[in-house]
Hints:
Layout: H1 2-30, E1 33-37, H2 44-60, E2 64-68, H3 75-83, E3 90-95, H4 96-105, E4 116-125, E5 128-132, H5 140-150, E6 154-158, H6 164-176, E7 180-184, H7 188-196, H8 207-212, E8 217-222, E9 249-256, H9 261-275, H10 278-286, E10 290-294, H11 296-316
Helix pairs in contact: 2-9, 4-11
Amino acid sequence: xxxxxxxxxxxxxxxxxxxxxxxxxxxxxxxxxxxxxxxxxxxxxxxxxxxxxxxxxxxxxxxxxxxxxxxxxxxxxxxxxxxxxxxxxxxxxxxxxxxxxxxxxxxxxxxxxxxxxxxxxxxxxxxxxxxxxxxxxxxxxxxxxxxxxxxxxxxxxxxxxxxxxxxxxxxxxxxxxxxxxxxxxxxxxxxxxxxxxxxxxxxxxxxxxxxxxxxxxxxxxxxxxxxxxxxxxxxxxxxxxxxxxxxxxxxxxxxxxxxxxxxxxxxxxxxxxxxxxxxxxxxxxxxxxxxxxxxxxxxxxxxxxxxxxxxxxxxxxxxxxx
Length: 322
């Protein structure tokens, strides 16, 4: 009799453990996903994040919450994701600046490349070489000639030391053989106001705001390998004979290191389908971005390319930010 009671107790205990553990796992994978955006609300990246959250949520049948954690060049938001539980419920809308440049520039950073798992590449965008129309320069060749004749450095706007625009300016100076001096701004709008007013000579921001101010600004080239079909009248840097100026800045999804592979695969598939959606593609085009959807391997390749490309510029110029 005692043995029968004992067996019943063990069976009940095992059954209870199964009932307890299975819903816990299901609950973990059924919680809302938090998509951390390392920028303030209201910007372009925030708009993309909300479209992405809607698409991923629809594909996975889950609620996706966008959480803005801006500040410190993306470090605050990226750090929070690096510390999060690797259960597939926290994602980072990462990019060239918050991930690659921060890691390569800042030795005391609280995260490294290895702090994240790649989930999905989303899109990237070209830079421009733009001058004010008042400069009287209409081509790259004329710009180089002007810069060599001027006898003093040309001024180019950046988003601060170590930003994509700052580093790109260093590549441009070396390639063209002309002296350039970086001028840091809080945002690109301020830089464009000064550029249009003739208080600057060059800017490398994305093409859309430049085209919107075409009366005062002239795009000389895009940092692409071939002409962008959305901007057919603008030559590419490769077309002009400057392949070393080809570059872009990317946006992708990352997760805390150790996130289960099957969850990464599911989220990557949902993100890829969302980016390929016609409505998302239309918004990309409106903002001068190019869809580049792909899984973890595509993002891994991009991160390795950044190590080589931006790492070389940073090392050559001995740039360290503490």
